[in-house]
Design brief:
TIM Barrel, eight-stranded parallel β-barrel, 14 helices
């Protein structure tokens, strides 16, 4: 792995963009339905925390993801804060039409880099996913930005290793569709930092005009290490989930996303500007156990930031 960039270099000074996915990726796997009003309250609070983007919900079938059956009500009920993008996952053209009717800023489309996960997660082949993407791009017709999330880009729980050349091939086809925002996703926490740095360096070198986002899960406690590796490769856009909630409901062993407040704490401690108010995030993270009914994985909310000072005993 290469050394960290010097703090006076252009890459070191570039602001980082934190994309909050808790309300969609986090809540979709929770067994207890989070009331619509609480989702709206959380989005509104996150909107004022300094995050660059919030993935608010998924316009999927309520039968497929009952936890997000209130997509329209949530999207129409939130406050829109200037400077924040509001995204939604859409599985098909019908979902895209529903999302566009609610005025989303970005449509997030998901396909798998591996064949088996594509069948397990989406019940279609990768070619079918790509054809569906083309239909959504046509339907959107410039009404919203489009991001493509490529799941299992660093490994598949069914197929194992996904060769880098195969991932690059799917990225090339996404770019050919006119998609210029692409997230490479470590769906079940199989990535390692060396692999992450190599792959992100490769895609950024080949497609410098595409905005690439790093999306990691902390399944094997490497989420922050992988985020650092992506940063070293030049990535400035990161998905994360408040409290470390989340996980793919169709992937064995999947656990939560890399934790937003832990990631922000790490970057800020390194001198990298995120624009996010860590104290606000921590306040919100401490509310999550009450919302979801169980403890959450985030560490900084428990220990406090490194700037915290304790009185001497005695």
């Amino acid at each position: 792995m290469t050394a960290l960039p010097r703090q006076d270099s252009p890459s070191a000074l570039a602001p980082l963009h934190i994309h909050e996915v808790c309300v969609r990726d986090g809540f979709q796997i929770e067994p207890v339905f989070v009331p619509t009003e609480r989702k709206i309250e959380l989005v509104n609070a996150l909107s004022r925390s300094g995050v660059a983007k919030i993935e608010v919900t998924s316009f999927s079938s309520p039968k497929a993801i009952p936890a997000l059956a209130d997509a329209e009500d949530v999207m129409r009920g939130i406050d829109r804060v200037e400077g924040v993008e509001y995204a939604a996952l859409v599985p098909n053209v019908r979902g895209a039409e529903r999302a566009l009717a609610c005025g989303v800023d970005e449509l997030n489309l998901v396909m798998s880099a591996s064949a088996s996960h594509s069948q397990a997660n989406l019940r279609m082949t990768r070619e079918q996913s790509l054809a569906q993407f083309a239909s959504i791009v046509d339907a959107a017709a410039g009404q919203a930005a489009i991001n493509a999330s490529l799941s299992t880009a660093f490994g598949c729980p069914f197929d194992g290793e996904v060769p880098a050349d195969e991932v690059l091939g799917w990225v090339a086809r996404l770019v050919d569709l006119g998609i210029n925002r692409i997230a490479l996703c470590d769906t079940t926490g199989m990535a390692n930092p060396a692999q992450v740095q190599r792959l992100f360096h490769a895609v950024m070198e080949r497609w410098p005009d595409v905005t690439f986002t790093a999306h990691f899960h902390d399944t094997r406690a490497m989420g922050l290490a992988n985020a650092l590796a992506a940063l070293n490769a030049g990535i400035t856009h990161f998905d994360a989930s408040l409290g470390g909630l989340g996980g793919c409901p169709f992937a064995p062993g999947a656990s939560g996303n890399v934790c937003t407040e832990d990631m922000v704490h790490m970057f800020e401690a390194m001198g990298r500007h995120t624009g996010v108010d860590l104290d606000r995030l921590l306040t919100l993270a401490r509310q999550l156990p009450d919302i979801v009914g169980h403890p959450v994985p985030g560490q900084v909310m428990k220990a406090g930031p490194t700037t915290r000072r304790y009185p001497l005993p005695g």
